[in-house]
Amino acid sequence: MDRLATLRGPPERLRRLVRETTLTTDADDPFYPLVRLSVTGAGLEAATPTGGAEPTFCARYDAAFFDSFAGPDEPCLAALGTGATLRWLDWVDGGDLAVALLGDADEGIARAIRLEGGDDSVEISPLPSDTVDPDFSTGRPDAFEDGRFVYEGTAAPTRVETTGETLERLVDATDIVGDETVPVVVADGEFRLSVVGDLMRGDGALPGTVEGPDCENRYGDGLAAIARTLTGPVTLQVVPGGPLAVVQDTDDASRRYVLSQSM
Q1: Other beta carbons less than 10 A from residue 233's beta carbon
Q2: What's the superkingdom here (predicted)?
Q3: Distance from first CA to last CA of the chain, Å, rounded?
């Protein structure tokens, strides 16, 4: 088989990429069992693995995200199993890890992946790459203009600058009270904690900078998965009474997740 692409970096950085593109923290219980990848010389893109699933997302990692990166001029496609990939990334010993996508260069579809670290080498094949729709844009949240989430022709008016860690605290509070959905509440210029269960409730202010109108929206387990996956600064772009986009941009990567409101 031809070597279609090779990327190299610390195992933790590669695990982070798989976690962010499958919304998975536990390899034995993946949120998305597959990650779909499109790779070129400029970098790597991951998109929603199954049509109709939520959250829809698109994550892009520039070549600079990796210690070294080599990809083809034309996109090659791959689908990796989440659980096995994360477990092997944990298992391979050594410092930097090299990941090679292998397949027929004319076909442009990866049929195997090889992990190389220290004295260890692991090859996984065949990959479920036939599940990758040639129209890779299927399910991609492409409703962004100049970094703003646009819904029905209008940019989401409410914006909250916060952190993944704050979102995780919100999700934890939701779990404690037994609330079935995660509330995203903005009131009087504050990002608010407002969780209600049968026997408990929690109220208070959450760290965040807010602009735009108040909202009191609710979202399902997709938001909980995002909150447990992302760390560092994130932006919530909210349509009051409607969908939510969770955005994280760094120097060498961008991540866009879009969820519908739970009714």
Answers
A1: 15
A2: Archaea
A3: 49
Q: What is residue 4's DSSP assignment?
A: E
Residues 147 and 60: their CA atoms lie apart, in Å, by: 14
Q: How far is CA 26 from the centre of its chain?
A: 14
pLDDT digit string (tens) for the chain, length 263 residues = 899 999 999 999 999 999 999 999 999 999 999 888 999 999 999 987 655 578 888 899 999 999 999 999 999 999 888 999 999 888 886 678 999 999 999 989 999 999 988 888 899 888 876 666 555 554 556 688 888 999 999 999 999 999 999 999 999 999 999 988 999 999 999 999 999 887 888 899 999 999 999 999 999 999 999 999 999 999 999 999 999 999 999 999 999 999 999 86
CA atoms of 163 and 135, how far apart (whole Å): 33
Cα-based distances in Å from 248 to 77, 155, 225: 24, 17, 15
Specify the residue for token string 């269960």: 197
Peptide bond into 126 cis (omega under 30): yes
Q: Which tokens belong to 176?
A: 């404690």
CA–CA gap between residue 263 and residue 252 (Å, rounded): 36
By three-state DSSP, how is residue 169 classified?
A: helix
- Number of C-alpha atoms within 13 angstroms, CB side, residue 79? 16
- Do the Cβ atoms of 246 and 260 come closer than 8 Å? no
Distance in angstroms (rounded) separating the CA atoms of residues 25 and 30: 7
The conformational region for residue 28 under phi > 0 = left, psi -120 to 50 = alpha, else beta, is: alpha
d(CA 201, CA 177): 6
Residue-range domains of the chain with CATH: 2-131 (3.10.150.10), 146-259 (3.10.150.10)
